[in-house]
Amino acid sequence: MFYADDIKNKKILLHACCGPCSLGAIEPLLSDGACLTLFYYNPCIVDGEFEKRLDALNAVARHYGLSVIVPSHDHSAFTEYASPYSTAREGGERCGLCMTDRLRVSAEYAAIHGFDAYTTTLTVSPHKNSKAIFLIAEGLTFGAPFLPRDFKKRDGFLLSTKRARELDIYRQKFCGCEYSLASAEAQTGGER
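The chain above was modelled as a monomer; its predicted structure follows.
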């Protein structure tokens, strides 16, 4: 873990799951003086949806003058480890595996490319358990140190939704994988 109160001029890799969630993390990190780069590694997100979210993230990056790194998208890698847990509840084992994968790859990328630390926008969502995310990051054995920030605090989620409306960017209604889509559609009667 990277327990630094002062991140001014530190190179921070921000794993970004989407444009709206990134809006709840970018402003606090920039106001602390961090030098940010966005990292869009999300093999869990289904094709079609992946591109919509990337377009929104690119709009956010342009707004703040940030760079976005986009590793190759291989959704089949996600389904390989997630499909045995297709009926698991949202936030359960499948989601834990998914978050572990995204944090592991982010940590490795950050270490290899000379970042001081990495963090994630996953903690913006009120549907994600920040303490569980911190525990996953703490358990990784290789990579750059993790900067533990719970971005939903101090109204980070409200900030993200407000800024998304202001920038008029796409805001999704499900986590991103086909399993969360099925769950969201079941709750809304198929409405997206």
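The chain has one domain: 11-188.
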